[in-house]
Design a protein that fits this description.
This protein is α/β, with parallel strands linked by helices and 279 residues long. It contains 13 helices and six strands. It has a six-stranded mixed β-sheet with strand order 3-2-1-4-5-6. The relative contact order is 0.17.
Amino acid sequence: MNMIKCFHSLYNSRKTPSLLQTLTHPSPLVYNVLRHSIFVRNYRTKEKEKEEEGTTPKFDPKYKSKPRLILVDGSGIAFRNHSRPKEYDDNKPVLSNKFATVGFCKRLLSILREYPTDYCAVALDPKGSTRARKEVYADYKKSRKLKDPLLIQQISKDIPEALRKFGIPLVQCEGHEADDGIATYTKIAVEKGHEVLIFTDDKDFCQLINENVYVIKSDNSVRDIEAVKQEFRISPEQFVDFQTLMGDKIDNIPGAKGIGEVTAANLLLEHGTLSKITE
């Protein structure tokens, strides 16, 4: 149980590069593509401020009140956009089959257009990204099918090339998944007083959410502390214990026998932590 709990924690403490040295503003090329500044929404009108005076406004990701870092789960976006049509033909123009790359670029530009930020980076899975996790649990993702070679090419070559042209830093660490890089930079940014927006649909990132960290899904809905409580009935601080109890079939990670999402949440609501459950 302790081994699996350790495995579920995203933060990788072995690699902590300097945030301000590594992450930079998007390059002028991005601004040219967008045709207007990504900071266009970085203010509120006097009327809006007057309307909210004396109230506690709901978090608005399109309003930046402190230094902000945007972290994008590039691998997740690529997977969602990748599809290989039945009529696939190797003789077609190369770009016509690179749905992952095109979809990723469209999403990235949409993010930069809509969400003001000071820093931005994209995380991608490097080759052999599961190595560190398999050292902890050998059967990790054992049931997963092999990736489509076309998708592998886009994640390893095409999307990194697009990021270079956009001037957006790429976060990768040999032997570790994109999740680990995002979690590491999130911790660094929060320690430096930054606000962090993570763009992903992966529920694993719920464990990182706090008053300075928010997850933005592909439909632009926001996962914050209250959203996690409403969706899973537990707090972000309990999320690692929550996953440990119920396991993860997609990644072939076993949980406690007979415990699913409902029971796991009930146990944590009653006892608070996994350690108290097992006492």
